[in-house]
Amino acid sequence: MGVQDEDTAPARTDFPVFCYEFEYAFSMQLRYNYRLDPWPQHRIAFGKAFGCARVVFNDALAARETAHQAGLPYLTDAELSTRLTAVKKSPERAWLTEVSAVVLQQALADLNAAYRNFFDSLTGSRKGPKMAKPRFRSRKDHRQAIRFTANARFKLLPNGRLRLPKIGDVPVRWSRPLPSEPSSVTIVKDSAGRYFASFVIETDAGTLPEATPAVGIDLGLRHFAVLSDGRKIAAPQFLRRAEKLLQRRQRDLSRKQEGSKNRDKARLKVARAHARVGDARRDFHHQLSTALIRDNQAVAVEDLAVRGLARTRLAKSVHDAGWSGFVNMLEYKARRYGREFCRIGRYTPTSQTCSLCGVKDGPKPLHVRTWQCDACGAWLDRDINAAVNVAKAAGLAVTACRARVRPSPCGMARREEAGTHPKSLPEAA
Ligand SMILES: [Zn+2]
After folding, report:
1. Cα dihedral sign, 69-73-79-80
2. 169 noted as active-site residue
3. Which tens digit of pLDDT belongs to each residue from 318-365?
4. What is the Cα–Cα distance from 308 to 304, expressed in whole angstroms?
5. Which one of 72, 76, 217, 402 is CB 3.0 to 4.6 Å from 67, fit for a cystine?
6. Measured between alpha carbons, how far is residue 279 from residues 35, 172, 387, 416 in Å?
7. Active-site residue, 295 included
8. In the prediction, which pLDDT does 13 show?
């Protein structure tokens, strides 16, 4: 079936969000996301369901916190479930029966999963970044989500609508067909007020025809990615256009008076522009990662210290580039299609080593884009050299010839002559 499913992301069963920034755990589940066009009555029903799920989640969280503070034992998942059944019969929470029981049970399941992740990350039995303690949900959260599992009997109707219990038949924009029966669907409302249905599909790991090439990837800010075969990939026009629009919207917002109607309007426009940037970036990441996995048998990428960089003055650019989402896409697509995927430790000195002869000649300031290796005399392009080193560190057989540059006495080299690093000075031909 190929790799045409451009917007699939692995499902995180532990987190009900429309999200690509998942951690390192993978399953052979994929998410298929579609935009919804709910009618006004659907929006009202969704609003009610989001609210009820939030109340159930927060009540259960409060119950656990209270028990903890009182020194009582941890409330088990089963106890929370029993409490929920009881509380639905009480007059002050009777309105909980107006939404699907599955939605409420899934809200509890989310809380339980969040606690498990938190405990597991405390004991170190969970890979990836440390997880925070579950937090109370708010109606002001940018993302509202509810989940229907198969036993909620949601249904894909022949007329293309999605039937959700106690919500109705919601129109779906089917951008492509679902490959098989989904096991669950999460409904998400984002900060721009858009609704999405995110279906989870269980898949067998499909494989692509064998491909021989291997590629090393160096992610950067100057170019989004530089490949060991010498290709440099900049962020595409549509992404830059979306970013320009976002900047303009933000400027507009900052000029509006606090508390005014116009400010609210401008804020919504900012949220929409943000959503557009996010979509454009995701599209770009999907296209590039799909092409890389399709064309190469093995892919190596530097495990970036994104968290470290995010605290520096480069933070905004680092966040904008969205590297971690991209690397995760590469990883799950590689798994899915039987390709080799390697992450190279972030302490591998990829820019300090000559990719031709392997001699390490120390760090170079960022402005040095090309330099000459003392040992073998080759002129090296900083980014391509790094990409080749990434591939080599992963044990991939790639040729280093593209890392070589012809020193030019004009153009790029001129600017570097102003640098303080003597090695960056190309000798006049
Ligand atoms: Zn060398």
Report:
1. positive
2. no
3. 566 678 889 989 998 898 888 899 988 766 677 788 988 888 888 888
4. 9
5. 72
6. 12, 18, 27, 37
7. no
8. 31
